[in-house]
Amino acid sequence: MTPRVVTPRAVTRRATLTRRATFAALAAGALLLTGCSSTIEGRPVPVGATAGDQEFQSLLEECNTVTPEQIADVVGGTAIDQGFLGAICRWDVTGPAGAVKVTFDWFESGSLAAEREANERMGWTVTDVTVSSRGAIEIRQPDDPASCGVSAPSPISGVIGWWVQFRPGNPADPCEAATRLMQLSLNLSA
Q1: How far is residue 9's CA from residue 2's CA, in Å, rounded to a whole number?
Q2: What residues form DSSP beta bridges with 160?
Q3: Residue from 186, 174, 184, 180 nearest 135 by CA
Q4: How many angstroms separate the CA atoms of 160 and 112, rounded?
Q5: Rounded-to-integer distance, Cα 154 and Cα 148, Å
Q6: What is the pLDDT at residue 26?
Q7: What is the pTM of this model?
Q8: Cys-Cys crosslink for 110: which of 83, 90, 159, 172, Cβ 3.0 to 4.6 Å?
Q9: Going edge to edge, which strands form the sheet with 88-94?
């Protein structure tokens, strides 16, 4: 094997290429950092809205269509604590007969047929009922006689529902309470 001879010119050329590559990498990094550090003035606005749009101000108002006091009164409670708010709203009610769980849901693109199908698939009993002159369904869990739900088409769009769950042994009828809550919701739109 013949030893390779490295000339001073080859060393200088290699060092120059290394310096150029290093400089190019540093320049590219500086440009990248400069591009990512710009500030945009103003405030964020949801897609499809304008800066003055108030559309999202009352996004969770559906949870307030029936007042907490009305809910407590319907289920026989003396105190109410509002839990989660969103597409599903939850309240914990306490009173002489113990704790009661109350849930309200509004699925804007849902349907009564879809609610029926989902509950029947879970093995729950679904019965046609009329609430405030509107077709609705009553939903019962076969192994929980202390709970009941009522769903009806929303006056706006989709489907709304109330679910009431008493403690076992509470003599109150959860379906009667869920129906009364649904009446309150539907009568608001009359």
Answers
A1: 20
A2: 106, 152
A3: 186
A4: 9
A5: 19
A6: 66
A7: 0.68
A8: 159
A9: 79-82, 88-94, 100-107, 159-166, 144-153, 134-141, 125-131
Q: Please state, in angstroms and rounded to a whole number, the distance separating the CA atoms of residues 168 and 120.
A: 23
Write out pLDDT tens, residues 84-141. Answer: 766 789 999 998 878 999 999 998 889 999 999 999 999 999 999 999 999 999 999 9
What are 107's two structure tokens?
A: 């699925």
pLDDT tens, 137-176?
999 999 999 999 999 998 888 999 999 999 988 889 999 9
Q: Give the model's confidence band at 49: pLDDT under 50 very low, under 70 low, under 90 confident, else very high.
A: very low
Residue type present at position 90: R
- Strands 144-153, 159-166: pairing kind: antiparallel
Look at residue 96 in the predicted model and tell me its pLDDT.
86
Identify whether the C-beta of residue 80 lies closer than 8 Å to the C-beta of residue 89: no
Secondary element (H or E) of residue 165:
strand 159-166
Half-sphere exposure of residue 22, counting CA atoms within 13 Å on the CB side?
A: 6
